[in-house]
């Protein structure tokens, strides 16, 4: 076998060179063919002609139903304009053919289908075709369906697929139909049944020699497209639609995408697993902290309070204190013994030193020391007196410094004392200074309060659009709240009017003229009764006036600008119409420039605020604060100016307070100095005279000791002995004091030990013991570590100090632990909620109490699976495997292009022997690859990405290559905009037909657009190309004739004249095919001379069809 034969399976291995032709077609209950029908075919060409709807396409569809896969749409005229699923409910289908559907009609129950048979009863249909070969062998294929009355789809029917070697009369199935075409009944009729469509097709292809090496389905697909007679405009379209099947590149690309998506899906699950692990890992720490906090709270609750002597905390304190108290007792015992020994020792030393001093005194007196002794006594007396006088002198000097005077003599001192007593006797002097300070402080306080009030009012006014004083506003708010109204529904008159800008100087006069009317509250008259009842129980510090008014009066236009109402602006509201009328009636003051003009008008007003109403009038009053206006601009300006003035006055008042305070302090300092001086005498401060006496007696001592050096030595020894006695006496006194302290402390410790022992005994009686955890917790909280150099007393002191706030500290510890427990539970709940929000699951609840175990189980399963740790390894695998896929796709693209070119060669070989146009010319198919920069870049990117995958060595490089590969694969997805251009290699070539001279091979003509040719020329061209392609698909490229001959053409060859029809039929006949042609009545004349058998397809008025032979096949 040649390379082409083995590659494309052109010749079956078991071929005997026979040719199968269709001998007859049998129908039972198929469409309009009610009952049994048989159409015999000529081995050359048969014509089926008839009117529209007569049943030509029904015969053609019977062949499709018998031979083609169930996905092949019927090609009848009724389906020509319908787009839908093959054999869908909206098109002709087996079920409608089996029941002989006629039409549909609308009834009260809905759409009613009118059929020839099977209306409410079971029915069946069968199709059979017998083929004969050149040596007389016959083969018959049968398909039959049994439809129960309730069948709505083909799945509800019983299907029969059967063959037999030899002829078969379909009428033999009538007995089997009575058994609902059961398999046993059909086999009893002499047929060999097959279970599936695949087995049935394989049997037909094998017996009839359709295709080779499994190519039978491609051949049948081409036969179906030929029979459908699709409209084709170019040779390129003809070749690609009728000859080329779907290239393998589409399947390869789909496999690449599917493989990548599968791998990517796993990678996505890995990433998701890692994210889930990261999201859930904190819950373990949270659970530990929650459990620890709960355990700590339980422990604290169990310990109780230190204030409760029966609590476990008090038991721990008693145990710890007993240990410490016993250590302190031992320490006190040792210190007491040591102190007693010290007292005895120091007493003996003191007695010896005293005896020594007395002995030396006796020796001194014997040596003439009486005079020296008297001098020393005087010195001691003077020294004591001088010490006392120095303290008084220091007070005296300090007082003189305050008074800024100097005193050196007794006379000056006497004069100063007299002045001090006179000054102290003047009680009014201090009152004047104090009154000045009080007045300055009071002024400062008043100004500060005034400034604070102004600033509060300024801030409040900034938030409002009126100038109503706060007290009135608050009172109005109370009434509005009681009545269920808003402030806007209960306005003051002053809130509804404002002074026009050009009359701003008159604001004060208008305020005085309106008087209390400006602060009148307006109430909708319809709500007045309810308002009065609602506010009756409200207690106000301010008395408010209100008036019920109608709210349906229209607002008026411009009022007289010479009068007060005309110089006002009005806020638009339900009350404005009434207010304008009221102002016109009661406050229509004419605004005059001088008081002399007041008498000229019934009602008049000057800019100073004086009013006249005939003989009556009014004047005076304060208008410092205007309450008119529905804008707070004027009031804010007034408040700003007042605040500036008060701040300036406050600064001056603060300086006056400071000055008065300084004066009061200075007066008090001077008076204190004078009081000190008045209490002194000259003898108390005359230090100089005492110092002179000291000098004199010191001279006497020097005189006595200078005459007898032995006296000085004895005095020194006596002084030393005296000093030792004094020091020892002090040590003895200190030791005795220590003895008393230790004894008292020992008694206290003994009492504490007794009390603690009593508490421990009571706890023992109640069998109360502390757990190691409780002891460790309290030790860590209150027992500070200490070294060996710390005494037991110090340890006890530290322990008692730590326990001084023990209850408070324990409560704080409990509160902090409770907060930790709550915070961790809330954090756990938020973590759970975030997890379920991102990965919803009906089985997971964000409940720390109920669902924590589920989340821990999920985390454990994720960690056990290890998915979250395999991302890097999987990415490398994904790159490697997908890179191989890209290589396969690149190879498939190259191979598919080569196969298209190679595929044309055998077809051209067939057409090389067929005359085209005339005997001197031949037709050849010429492919040309169409160049595209986009495809070039795509192929280059395929190779570059594959090379980059091999070259990537770091995570960053691999991540970059992965992104490029993902983008590349996105371009070959079926939904990508350039998918067809990149992957479908049929779009990479342009196919045309060319006519050559048979002898020289010289190019004569190019056939590209079939639509440019006449109908006859187009049909001849299509016949040559498609016929040759069919020979190739049937596996007969190198055979004398095709093994499977029948070709059905529905309404083909009807656009050509007799000449071109003859050439087209001749082309098919020359290629060795048996033709069955369907044509309408008015278009078959050009075909008729070239067929051997002709049938008229007829239909009666009841919708029944039959085939009537005009030129029949001999019986």
How would you characterize the overall build of this protein?
The chain is an alpha+beta fold and 1115 residues long. Among the domains are: 3-41 and 52-240, N-terminal domain of mukB; 257-280 and 870-1008, no CATH class; 382-464 and 635-689; 475-631, no CATH class. It is built from 32 helices and 24 strands. The strands form 7 sheets. Strands 2-1-6-7-8-9 form a 6-stranded antiparallel beta sheet. A 5-stranded mixed beta sheet has the order 21-22-3-23-24, sandwiched between helices. Strand 4 and strand 5 (110-115) form a beta hairpin. Helix 11 crosses helix 24 and helix 14 packs antiparallel against helix 19. The longest helix has 57 residues, at 709-765. It is elongated and about 185 Å long.
Task: Itemize the secondary structure elements and their pairings.
Elements: H1 3-8, E1 21-30, E2 33-40, E3 45-50, H2 56-67, H3 94-99, E4 101-107, E5 110-115, E6 123-132, E7 138-147, E8 158-164, H4 174-178, H5 183-188, E9 192-193, H6 197-208, H7 216-228, H8 235-242, H9 248-280, H10 282-303, H11 312-366, H12 370-403, H13 410-425, H14 428-462, H15 470-483, E10 497-499, H16 507-514, E11 521-524, H17 528-535, E12 546-549, E13 568-570, H18 576-586, E14 590-591, E15 603-605, E16 611-613, E17 616-618, H19 633-678, H20 682-685, H21 687-707, H22 709-765, H23 772-782, H24 792-803, H25 806-838, H26 852-865, H27 871-912, E18 921-929, H28 933-951, H29 955-971, H30 979-983, E19 989-997, E20 1003-1007, H31 1015-1033, E21 1046-1050, H32 1058-1070, E22 1074-1080, E23 1093-1099, E24 1105-1111
Parallel strand pairs: 3-22, 3-23, 11-12, 14-15, 21-22
Antiparallel strand pairs: 1-2, 1-6, 4-5, 6-7, 7-8, 8-9, 10-13, 15-16, 16-17, 18-19, 19-20, 23-24
Helix pairs in contact: 8-31, 9-26, 9-27, 10-25, 11-22, 11-24, 12-19, 12-21, 13-19, 14-19, 15-17, 27-28, 27-29, 27-31, 28-29, 31-32
């Amino acid at each position: 076998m040649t390379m082409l034969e083995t590659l494309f399976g052109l010749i079956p291995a078991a071929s005997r060179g026979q040719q199968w032709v269709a001998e007859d077609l049998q129908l039972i209950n198929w469409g309009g063919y009610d009952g049994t029908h048989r159409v015999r075919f000529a081995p050359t060409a048969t014509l089926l002609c008839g009117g529209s709807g007569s049943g030509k396409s029904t015969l053609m569809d019977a062949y499709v139903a018998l031979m083609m896969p169930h996905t092949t749409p019927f090609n009848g005229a009724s389906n020509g304009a319908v787009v839908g699923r093959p054999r869908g409910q909206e098109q002709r289908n087996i079920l409608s053919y089996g029941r002989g559907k006629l039409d549909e009609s609308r009834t009260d129950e809905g759409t009613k289908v009118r059929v020839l048979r099977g209306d409410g009863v079971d029915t069946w249909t069968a199709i059979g075709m017998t083929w004969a070969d050149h040596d007389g062998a016959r083969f018959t294929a049968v398909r039959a369906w049994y439809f129960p009355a309730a069948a709505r789809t083909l799945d509800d029917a019983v299907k029969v697929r059967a063959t037999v070697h030899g002829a078969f009369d379909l009428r033999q199935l009538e007995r089997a139909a009575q058994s609902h075409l059961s398999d046993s009944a059909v086999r009893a009729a002499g047929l060999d049944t097959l279970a599936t469509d695949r087995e049935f097709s394989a049997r037909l292809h094998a017996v009839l020699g359709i295709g080779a090496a499994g190519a039978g389905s491609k051949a049948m697909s081409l036969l179906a497209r030929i029979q459908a007679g699709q409209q084709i405009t170019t040779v390129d379209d003809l070749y690609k639609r009728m000859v080329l099947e779907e290239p393998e590149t589409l399947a390869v690309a789909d496999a690449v995408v599917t493989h990548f998506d599968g791998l990517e899906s796993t990678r996505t699950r890995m990433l998701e697993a890692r994210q889930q692990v990261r999201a859930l890992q904190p819950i373990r720490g949270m659970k530990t902290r929650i459990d620890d906090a709960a355990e700590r709270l339980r422990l604290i609750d169990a310990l109780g309070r230190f204030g409760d002597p029966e609590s476990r905390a008090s038991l721990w304190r008693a145990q710890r204190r007993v240990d410490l108290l016993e250590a302190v007792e031992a320490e006190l015992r040792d210190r007491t013994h040591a102190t007693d020994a010290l007292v005895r020792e120091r007493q003996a030393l003191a007695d010896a030193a005293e005896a020594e001093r007395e002995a030396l005194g006796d020796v001194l007196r014997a040596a003439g020391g009486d005079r020296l002794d008297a001098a020393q006594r005087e010195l001691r007396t003077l020294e004591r007196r001088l010490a006392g006088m120095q303290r008084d002198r220091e007070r005296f000097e300090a007082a003189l410094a305050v008074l800024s005077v100097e005193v050196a003599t007794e006379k000056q001192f006497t004069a100063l004392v007299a002045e001090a007593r006179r000054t102290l006797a003047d009680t009014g002097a201090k009152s004047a200074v104090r009154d000045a300070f009080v007045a300055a402080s009071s002024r400062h306080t008043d100004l500060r309060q005034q400034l604070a009030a102004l600033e509060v009012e300024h801030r409040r006014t900034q938030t409002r659009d009126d100038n109503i004083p706060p007290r009135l506003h608050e009172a109005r708010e109370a009434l509005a709240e009681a009545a269920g109204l808003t402030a806007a529904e209960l306005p003051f008159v002053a809130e509804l009017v404002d002074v026009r800008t050009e009359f701003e100087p008159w604001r004060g006069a208008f305020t005085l003229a309106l008087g209390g009317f400006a602060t009148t509250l307006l109430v909708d008259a319809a709500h007045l009764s309810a308002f009065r009842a609602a506010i009756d129980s409200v207690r106000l510090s301010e008395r408010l006036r209100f008036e019920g008014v109608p709210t349906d009066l229209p607002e008026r236009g411009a009022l007289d600008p010479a009068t007060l109402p005309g110089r006002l602006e009005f806020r638009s509201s339900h009350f404005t119409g009434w207010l304008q009328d009221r102002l016109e009636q009661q406050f229509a003051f004419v605004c005059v420039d001088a008081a002399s003009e007041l008498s000229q008008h019934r009602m008049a007003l000057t800019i100073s605020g004086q009013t006249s109403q005939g003989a009556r009038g009014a004047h005076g009053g304060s208008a410092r604060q205007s309450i008119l206006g529905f804008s707070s601009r004027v009031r804010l300006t007034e408040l700003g100016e007042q605040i500036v003035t008060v701040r300036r006055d406050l600064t001056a008042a603060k300086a006056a307070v400071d000055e008065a305070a300084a004066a009061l302090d200075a007066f008090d300092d001077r008076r204190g100095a004078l009081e000190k001086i008045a209490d002194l005498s000259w003898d108390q401060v005359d230090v100089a005279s005492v110092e002179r006496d000291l000098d004199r007696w010191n001279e006497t001592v020097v005189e006595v000791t200078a005459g007898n050096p032995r006296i000085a030595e004895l005095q020194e020894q006596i002084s030393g002995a005296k000093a030792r006695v004094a020091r020892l006496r002090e040590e003895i006194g200190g030791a005795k004091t220590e003895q008393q302290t230790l004894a008292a402390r020992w008694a206290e410790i003994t009492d504490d030990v007794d009390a603690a022992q009593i508490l421990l005994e009571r706890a023992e009686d109640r069998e109360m013991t502390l757990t190691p955890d409780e002891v460790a917790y309290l030790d860590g909280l209150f027992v500070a570590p200490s070294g060996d150099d710390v005494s037991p007393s110090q340890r006890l002191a530290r322990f008692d100090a730590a326990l001084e706030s023990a209850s408070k500290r324990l409560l704080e510890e409990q509160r902090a632990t409770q907060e930790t427990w709550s915070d961790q539970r809330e954090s756990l709940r938020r973590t759970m909620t975030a997890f379920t929000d991102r990965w919803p699951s009906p089985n997971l609840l964000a409940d720390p109490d109920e669902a924590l175990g589920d989340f821990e189980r999920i985390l454990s399963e994720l960690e056990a699976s290890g998915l979250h740790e395999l991302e890097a390894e999987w990415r490398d695998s994904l790159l490697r495997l997908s890179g191989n896929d890209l290589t396969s796709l690149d190879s498939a693209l190259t191979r598919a292009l080569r196969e298209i070119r190679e595929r044309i060669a055998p077809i051209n070989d067939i057409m090389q022997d067929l005359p085209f146009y005339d005997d001197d010319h031949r037709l050849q198919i010429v492919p040309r690859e169409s160049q595209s920069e986009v495809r070039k870049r795509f192929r280059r990117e395929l190779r570059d990405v594959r090379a980059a995958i091999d070259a990537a060595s770091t995570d960053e490089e691999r991540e970059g290559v992965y992104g490029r590969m993902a983008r590349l694969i996105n371009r070959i997805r079926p939904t990508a905009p350039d998918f067809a251009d990149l992957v479908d290699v049929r779009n990479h070539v342009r196919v045309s037909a060319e006519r050559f001279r048979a002898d020289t091979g010289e190019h004569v003509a190019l056939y590209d657009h079939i639509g440019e040719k006449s109908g006859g020329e187009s049909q001849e061209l299509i016949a040559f190309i498609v016929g040759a392609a069919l020979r190739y698909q049937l596996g007969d490229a190198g055979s004398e004739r095709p093994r499977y001959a029948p070709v059905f053409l529905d309404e083909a060859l009807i656009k050509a004249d007799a000449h071109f029809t003859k050439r087209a039929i001749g082309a098919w006949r020359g290629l060795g095919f048996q033709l069955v042609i369907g044509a309408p009545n008015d278009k078959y004349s050009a075909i008729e001379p070239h067929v051997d058998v002709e049938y008229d397809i007829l239909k009666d008025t009841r919708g029944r069809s039959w085939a009537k032979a005009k030129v029949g096949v001999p019986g």
